[in-house]
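Mods, move this if it's the wrong board.
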Amino acid sequence: MGSSTMTELRRARGRGPAKHAVLIAAGIVMVYPLLWMLASSVKPDALIFREPGLIPTDLTTENYSLGWNALSHPFTHYLMNSFLVVAGAVVGNLASCSLAAYAFARLNFRFRRLWFAIMLMSIMLPIHVIIVPQYVLFSELGWLNTFLPLIVPKLLATDAFFVFLMVQFFRGVPRELCEAARIDGAGHARIFLQIMLPLAVPALATTAIFTFIWTWNDFFSQLIFLTEPDLYTVPIALRAFLDSTGQSSWGAMFAMSIVSLVPLFLIFLLGQRYLVRGIATTGLK
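Not the wrong board. Structure tokens:
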């Protein structure tokens, strides 16, 4: 018995370093493209593809100054456009998805399960299926070349994933809290604002973080609805550095790509604790 136990311990100790080595190797593979882009942002254009290594032989920061002023507006203009779209999307999802989730989790209305199933089925719809009717609708409304097509749908709880996430969280809140508040004379509005929302901070933070990341990186929708250069967001502005008929500004594009990643890293680092709590407490384990 003692011999077999020692053998198992030796095997466990041997597997530990191997697992760490595999994880380190996988981490390097995932981080390498980001490191390569960072290294390319401080190389002259002529050396970016000639010297694919991570250590530049000719270090320059000129790409950042060139990229910042290379387009018709300073890059600050496109950053502000993206922040405006992201702010509207975050506020819209937080308000509408939390209200819809409360209705599915706490209200009894006709065909509730049917509507909930339809809502879940909408998650499987790819954006390419709905983009054409959306474009026709927004064109008829005169919303093309405005930020409205990117913000208004968020006010209507169109992101079913976040509705489902909050429904799972609200269902985990003890009903006794709501019943006690109802005995004290509280209605659904007061229960939602004073009981549910304060308890749902992790789920709300998770929704805000994912909405920020997905909206900031959204290229397809913004490319479809925004064609005026003054309205370009960061993803579309980065595309403007690629010229199919002439010479592309690779160094400036990589430099501005690094700049565009800074808000994503900051929002993830600042909200990482709430993100983990939100996912762990909504049943998505």
